Amino acid sequence: PCEDYEEFYSSHGYSLPRLQYMLQNVNGLIVLPGSYRSHKAFRERNYYMVDRSAAIIAVCSKGRSGSMQTLGYAMRQELAYCRICLDNAGSYPLYPPLTPETWEVERCGF
User: Is the per-residue pLDDT at 75 higher than 70?
Assistant: First the structure.
């Protein structure tokens, strides 16, 4: 997360007790410099994860999003990936589709 991740959680209506539970149960925590208000901070976080991965699983639509940008970066790094496409899933909070059989899935290297 970014330096002000607690503010991000509270301002977006996420559960701070759940956040604290997750933080108490992680093997390690890396807090990147910057604010959640900066798209650069999210991009740096996502690239950090890709740079330390052998493969990724992405759940996203085909449009422009941070998840698609991260997938594109992983593909340029030639990582194995699996993309679960939400384009036919409807709108949040109804996605992903109720059954995995309806998911559109693209794989490379798995």
Answer: yes
Please give the residue that has the higher pLDDT: either 101 or 46: 46
The one-letter amino acid code at 88 reads N
Residue 21 or 87, more confident: 21
* Half-sphere exposure (Cβ direction) of 16: Cα atoms closer than 13 Å: 7
Report the C-alpha gap between 26 and 13 in whole angstroms: 22
Task: Report yes or no on whether pTM surpasses 0.85.
Answer: no
Encoded tokens for 11: 């301002």
Whole-Å CA distances, 83 to 14, 25, 96, 100, 101: 26, 27, 13, 13, 14
Q: Are the beta carbons of 46 and 72 closer than 8 angstroms?
A: no
If you ran DSSP here, which 8-state letter would residue 29 be given?
-
| Nearest one of 59, 51, 45, 105 to 78, comparing CA atoms | 51
Q: Tell the residue number behind the tokens 């970066």, with chain if given.
A: 73
Strand order in 55-60's β-sheet? 55-60, 80-85, 104-108
